Amino acid sequence: MVTTPRTFAFATAAAVLLAASACTPQVQPTPMPTASACTKDSLSTETAGKLTIATDEPARQPWFVDDKPDNGKGFESAVAYAVAEQLGYTRDDVTWTRVPRDSAVAPGAKNFDFGIDQVSMTEERKQAVDFSAPYYLVRQSVVALRSSKIAGSATLADLRDARLGAQADTAGHQAVTELVRPKTEPRVYDSAKDARKALRDGRIDGLVVDLPTAFELTSTEIDDAVIVGQLPQVGSPAAFGLLLEKDSPIAGCVSAAVGRLASDGALKRLEEQWLVQEAGTRELG
């Protein structure tokens, strides 16, 4: 198999990010594209000298703020600008465009250089598009009604006496059984709809779902629901990557930029700022 700069960059950045989340024990450095190959003047972008970034509409918090991707606020907006800076682009060099997620992940030519919109990197999607190295490993979290006895919980121990629920065959179910280990057998639901209804009806004290779903639940679906907190990483988490056109000539450089942000701790700092502090989601340990 021929190893390209893009595959080198992907492997390195992915390993760095996974190790930072305690998913791998050690990282061995591997080569990345040269700096001269990844400058603004060298990159073949949609518009010469500019970087066009896509996201869906509306762009929701805390990934973005006020549905304004260009303000640099929110986790994904901040990540996008950090990647742009790594590639030599200023804020004025960045143009945002709105592209529905279904269109972004579909096969075919793209009118953007990369997209960012909580897109999980799956083998099926990799047949149609390219991805950068992962910029975020999805965490599991606990959602409860404000009136729940666990709404103010700060540790895993605080959850042990709770009636928790999760959808069957999900990372949320794995997190309940392997991390929380409640005294009462967790309630397991066949569908996300049934699990959410159980929470809404008060039949469980808390529901364990991935963090993006938790934000969706508390912001648009259940008015009196809150995110109790994030759980430690478990299993093989889903990963979000920057989405590029298949065989994009800039994929290696974009992956290298994400890798540098992972290795110097910038991604972790942005996650802490926007997904913990600004969003008010404590980490349960």
Automatic annotation (TrEMBL):
Annotated Solute-binding protein family 3/N-terminal domain residues: 50-278
Keyword Metal-binding in annotation: no
Matches recorded under InterPro entries: Solute-binding_3/MltF_N
Superkingdom: Bacteria
Signal peptide: 1-22
Pfam families the UniProt entry points to: SBP_bac_3
Keywords in alphabetical order: Signal
Cross-referenced SMART domains: PBPb (SM00062)
Protein name: Amino acid ABC transporter substrate-binding protein
The species this protein was found in: Micromonospora lutea
